[in-house]
Amino acid sequence: MSDMGAFIQLGFAHITTLGAIDHILFLVALAAIYTVRDWKDMLWVVTAFTVGHSATLLLAVTGILSVPAPLVEFLIPVTIVATCIENVIVRQRKVAGGAGYRRPVLAGLFGLVHGAGFANYLHSVFADRIAVPLLGFNLGIELGQITVLAVIFAGLYLLDRAIGATRLARPDWPVVRLRSAALSLAIMVVAARWAVVRAPW
User: Is residue 77 within 8 Å of residue 22, measured between CB atoms?
Assistant: First the structure.
């Protein structure tokens, strides 16, 4: 396998294993409010997240930016909690102020934090020339992210069907809102605990 292929595989494995559960839960939190019909909105959010984490990954691996690992590990669950709170408190996204850009902006900002986490991991396994490792690792992260999101949306579809088969949904609490709120609250509890455990003070 080429060096590029090896680092693509490394990046893919990093985002698709249980060791990356915090990043995976962040993707679940991002996707929780969407259905397949909202793919354009989700595409903007994922693109913003990608730009954010790619920028920080580049800056951190090249030594331009240095963020202490304990701080990054604390901030990652904080981004998850913040995303879950936004999921719950914003009810009517189409009419909420700034609905068109708020979510992508948040995803991009939070991507900066996750990129620092990716950089810390890449630093731990590679400390030589960075062009090929950085490109390959980032490509692997993106391929892994697409794979994870495909699985997430399949799970959300099945969850929607299960909720729809019950009598829980009402006009003011449709299936997608119920699913989003339940998932977000559950993820928020887990991420809040991580934040407390990882607090660097």
Answer: yes
Alpha helices in the chain (DSSP H): 3-16, 21-31, 39-61, 69-89, 102-125, 131-164, 175-198
Contact 49, 30 (CB under 8 A): yes
Task: Give the tokens for residue 183.
Answer: 């998932």
The answer to whether residues 107 and 30 touch, using CB atoms and an 8 Å cutoff, is yes
Q: Say whether pLDDT at 107 is over 60.
A: yes
Residue 13 corresponds to which amino acid?
A
Dig out the tokens for 145 from the structure: 């992210």
Our count of domains for the chain comes to 1
Global pTM reads 0.90
CB 110 within 8 A of CB 83: yes
Which residue segment(s) compose the domain that 95 sits in?
3-198
